[in-house]
Protein: Branched-chain-amino-acid aminotransferase
Amino acid sequence: MSAVFAGPDHAQLVINKTQAPKDLLPTDQLKFGASFTDHILSVAWDSTHGWGIPKLEPYKALSLDPAAAVFHYAFCCFEGMKAYKDAKGNVRLFRPEKNIRRLNTSAQRIALPAFDEAEVLKLLAKFTEIESRWIPEGRGFALYIRPTLIGTEPDLSVSRPQSALLYIIASPVGNYFGTSGMKAISLEAISTPVRAWPGGVGDKKVGGNYAPTIVAAEQSHARGFQQVLWLLGDPKVPEQQYITEVGTMNLFVAWIDHESNTKELVTAPLDGTILPGITRDSVLELAQERLVPQGWRVTEKRVYMTEIKEAAEQGRLLEVFGAGTALIVNPIRSISWNGQVIHCGLKKDQEVGDITSSMKDWIEDIQYGETEHAWSVVV
Amino acid sequence: MSAVFAGPDHAQLVINKTQAPKDLLPTDQLKFGASFTDHILSVAWDSTHGWGIPKLEPYKALSLDPAAAVFHYAFCCFEGMKAYKDAKGNVRLFRPEKNIRRLNTSAQRIALPAFDEAEVLKLLAKFTEIESRWIPEGRGFALYIRPTLIGTEPDLSVSRPQSALLYIIASPVGNYFGTSGMKAISLEAISTPVRAWPGGVGDKKVGGNYAPTIVAAEQSHARGFQQVLWLLGDPKVPEQQYITEVGTMNLFVAWIDHESNTKELVTAPLDGTILPGITRDSVLELAQERLVPQGWRVTEKRVYMTEIKEAAEQGRLLEVFGAGTALIVNPIRSISWNGQVIHCGLKKDQEVGDITSSMKDWIEDIQYGETEHAWSVVV
Structure:
């Protein structure tokens, strides 16, 4: 392992547990990312000493110089992942090595320090174990874990930060859909503003991808849509517009391919403009394993809005869903685009299609340990 | 004035000066953005109460929740501006209302709170006045001022931060070129990665524009170039590649236009992909006022690399320079592009061309109050 990737060392972890553990919130009061567990795990890095001693401490504010790089030049990247409690009380993570790998990739893209992934995985597991009382029981509930890496050097020159901080915090999250089951949402597909661009950072989980999306999402919401479907392609030429991501999810379209008359599950390719979602990858792998034997095709390719529209008009559009850590899958009722509303295959009183529903069950079964699978790691 | 733009109120400023003023650094030890003055001026905002009471306090660390929006989603924007000491000892700002206007525009693009620009200008002037002992005397020296606005709400939902902090810090800066005069630099023009794109945030001074540029700049530096010239256009089609910015400066090209045989100063248009530089604007205005009467044309238009190359080959390329707050203008010796080196009009032992040199003098004369001009504001 090269020097750059050495450390931190999980064996050096210093544990200083809180003397005043907080009360757990009732599970019906859990709001995503709004309340946090008892501790923070953090490890500092600087260019002279490399990674320092990891510390687990009571959750507390960070103290940073007002000139710290993160405040000025967005030296920040993160991950979002969940810990689950299975029926036997085991604590499980879902493909955590993928999140840690992606964090390392994001970090290096924005000149933040690389780290030894196996070591950070062990720190993550230890943090999760110590915070396990915060994992609400029951399907749909989880502890959302947020590894974060920021540049801390107080220096306004636009250059590689010579100090950084990696930290892990966590927030218990409820069953987003409550007891009522899934709810299909309506999207607005827009080509301006643009979320990401070839040669940009759309495939990295860096902070700079997020703040610029808020105003457009609010405006879309005010027009009655739940999420934005981000398109790429000339805003003046609808025929050139193709899908990238929806909100903070990847998008999947199930249709009957017009050439082969075959059922096909399609999603945008990893061309640098979309996040390489871990749920996306899981959906693709499960589809290969379980849908292909049923006669489905599974395809990563550029999907144009005109193709979706045409499939809907010709009755070939079966279902559409978003895929991400927050909801696993989110069924989509309609997409508003170019002055038209594209109905995505659901009947009026139907909230979720068969493929979307199966995907949710398959992935949840793994996450909650009901199907034994290598993706689910007991900590 | 709408409610959104109300506040902060400069008249409420609470001043708590340091009891331990720092020693000034010798001017030859000043490094851009590395040392800071005695105080920080800050004012908090939240969605319930709006802008709070502005405070001037001893320079100190910020204490922020690890879930604060700025650490995760890059809710951060800033300005860079300078205060100068003129020969009479007056303190001067250069077009400060332009910076404050741009900060407001940047803030609103990334869902941070808007503010009353006249009030923030007054706070800025007061801060500058209190820190005036930090402004080094002499041409080329200045106090670099960094107004910054960050989202502080501890909430991981990707949404508008409900709390924010506006703050001003400052760093004394030396004469970048020392006593040796200007130094021409060599650029590498690259089309991948891409700094900004249509529909993005390239025209806003938001943090997310900066972190993704570091690795490319380092790689370019390792190949022997001082700065990156960021291009837009298909990386595979050199003929389609056009200039946007250089490093963190706008780019100006002086050439003889091949159609009209007229001397022309051209720069990229404000099409959303480049920062609307205040130095850029000043260069354009001064060129209109002082070069046009000498027979020059001044043009904002898309400039293709093939045009620059052709002008160089035909002996029509007069000079090229970057323009920005840090250096005012920075002469450019050569641009490496598409496997070729384009020589930008300077002779071998020449570090700066006439237009570049005149622009520097004209703008500095105004900044240091040697030419009386409405752009220079005595505080």
